[in-house]
Amino acid sequence: MTIDSVRGAPDTPELAEPELVQLLTPEGERVEHPDYPLDLSAEEVRDLYRDLVNVRRLDLESVALTRQGELGLWASLLGQEAAQIGSGRALSENDMVFPTYREHGVAWCRGVDQLKLLSMFRGVTHGGWDPAEHNFHLYTVVIGSQTLHATGYAMGVQRDGVLGTPSAAATIAYFGDGATSQGDVNESFVFASVFNAPIVFFCQNNQWAISEPLERQSRIPLYRRAQGYGFPGIRVDGNDVFACLAVTRKALENARTGQGPTLIEAFTYRMGAHTTTDDPTRYRLKAEEEAWKLKDPIERVKAYLVRNEFADAAFFQKIEDEAKQTARELREGCLSMPDPKPLSAFEHVYAEPHPLMTEEQEQFAAYLASFEEEAR
Amino acid sequence: MTTLTLGKAMNEGLRKAMENDPKVLVMGEDVGKLGGVFRITDGLQKDFGEERVIDTPLAESGIVGTAIGLALRGYRPVVEIQFDGFVFPAADQIITQLAKMHMRSLGKLSLPVVVRIPCGGGIGAVEHHSESPEAYFTHTAGLRVVACSNPVDAYSMIQQAIASPDPVIFFEPKRRYWEKAEVDVESTDWTPLHSATVVRPGEHVTLLAYGPSVKTCLEAAGAAAEEGRSLEVIDLRSLNPLDIGTVVESVDRTGRCVVVHEAPVYNGFGAELAARITERCFYRLESPVLRVGGFSTPYPPSRIEDQYLPDLDRILDAVDRTFAW
């Protein structure tokens, strides 16, 4: 490998020092942006805070459940709460979400039972919730595949002729910085662009694709890729729930009114490991994590609430208690989740009866029954 | 009755499906104005508009991936993959996404997507234009895999595939696109999509084939008859699910079976047939099930493809070997 391979890593300041939309500083100071006015009531901010704290607590509980052997794996959202709650709360009921496997915060906003998410990581299902119930598609494990499904779904909305009407629906596709190297993501940009599909591409750039830093995926800031495909790209402070909310709202509204796709790069940081099987100490510096800790998405909202006297100690305690209770319920639900029946593996492979499924299921049932007979 | 080529029968079947259900879409490379490189979608965009007959960017994964999304929004996309060898960029979307989504949603989602693939050799093409990739897809749970061999089936099977709530991989024998037959386009009294048919009854040996090999087998049976051998030819039509009942009924009678397909024999679909027939007809078999197919090499340059493709002589040679056992 030539020295050229490191070109861009240390010397491209725009990768590390982004120009981004920010409405709330890490210190909790409200700042204005000419393109993204946002008027939130004290109650709305308190609700956002409640969301943020709850999803962090649920995430923490899920990590603990994994450590205790109750989940096979967990992809933690720690550090990305603002990106997920901000974008998730920007959605209208009709809008459709295509998540990766880390969008637990968006799932929370859509009202998806968190236990259903856990059922995947516990090995009980490969998904199992009804996407139509909350307009929240199944988690997609193959990196980037869902961006094409989202684009196709958006093309369907277009064909329904509802854009610009009250039934209009935007589609939002979530993916990470690593996924931007996938062919499918690039193909989805092409399709969305040439068909002017009503879609928002929401990239959570958390700086790390397992062990690979952003420089291994791109030499330009990710939001600038949109320009090459012919639609707007914008970078937002992904740890700023206000900015994520405002920027996503606008992009969704553009989609609903037929103005085509937008790429949002939410500049954030994966505070935890990629998943519970990963060990970030092997590839990144503690100092980097410490620097990002100062930009914590929750602390700044708390500071804002306190600074403006929108909330008192009793409120914070109430939210803390509520989050604990939610986590307790999650734990109980997880532990009492029944394993699937072995014969259920043959169900739902096909929508219509399939002779091979029937045959193998019957054979396997007979085999299982033979043990019961022996035991008698 | 109307005289139609297989290609035109496909076209008429697609047209009928689009007329019957406004949610049916056709999408792929060059399927619009050009009507597809084989003209299978000829005239459809003119009659149904660009919103329903979509000329897509040249990206197979993108085509199948967006078709999945359209299906999730309630449409029934019929995707054209221009040539068999080009399905591989879409293999990820087909195998990891399309095939599994119904199961992953515990039956909540259905994916009525048809992926049409012109398959097989014999047209003097350059590489990647003559492949028979069916075994990759029959090996994938969640997909239905069918192959038509004649105009009558082309017309009905494409409509049945579109009506299926499950994803269907639909193989079309490209070198048979110009074969003609009488098709009753008014009738809907069709053979079920997943049933095999005995296309020529016989007594001594069962020939199993699908897609382009069916005609070759019929020719072989004709030649064998002149020598006093009666070969039964079964057009499997559906590879997943497989109508094993029709196969077993035949082999139980004949005691001999030769499987014919263009795909390489090694790990080809014939291997599955041979194993299943052996399980079910063990005591009736007079010889092992023999397979005639492509060699276990990459598809050769077209100047020698006639040696690679199963032909009448190689089929009859295998028939002879079943008697010599």
TrEMBL record, chain A:
Among the GO molecular function terms of this UniProt record, one is: oxidoreductase activity, acting on the aldehyde or oxo group of donors, disulfide as acceptor
A Pfam family (short name) is E1_dh
Domain of life per record:
Bacteria
Q: Does the keyword Oxidoreductase apply?
A: yes
One GO BP annotation of this record = branched-chain amino acid catabolic process
Give all residue intervals belonging to the Dehydrogenase E1 component domain.
55-329
> Which keywords describe this protein according to UniProt?
Oxidoreductase, Pyruvate, Thiamine pyrophosphate
Report the InterPro entries cross-referenced here.
Alpha-ketoacid_DH_E1_comp (IPR050771), DH_E1 (IPR001017), PdhA/BkdA (IPR017596), THDP-binding (IPR029061)
**Cofactor list:** thiamine diphosphate
Q: What is this protein called?
A: Pyruvate dehydrogenase (Acetyl-transferring) E1 component subunit alpha
Q: Which organism is it from?
A: Actinomadura syzygii
TrEMBL record, chain B:
- Which GO terms of the molecular function aspect are on file? branched-chain 2-oxo acid dehydrogenase activity; magnesium ion binding
**A GO biological process held by the record:** branched-chain amino acid catabolic process
Known SUPFAM superfamilies for this protein?
A: Thiamin diphosphate-binding fold (THDP-binding), TK C-terminal domain-like
What keywords were assigned to this record?
A: Oxidoreductase
Listed EC numbers: 1.2.4.4
| Top class in the EC scheme | oxidoreductase
Q: Which CDD domains match?
A: TPP_PYR_E1-PDHc-beta_like
Q: Which domain of life is it from?
A: Bacteria
The Swiss-Prot or TrEMBL record lists the needed cofactor(s) as: thiamine diphosphate
Q: Which residues form the Transketolase-like pyrimidine-binding domain?
A: 4-179
Name of the molecule in the record: 3-methyl-2-oxobutanoate dehydrogenase (2-methylpropanoyl-transferring)
Q: What is the lineage of its organism?
A: Bacteria, Bacillati, Actinomycetota, Actinomycetes, Streptosporangiales
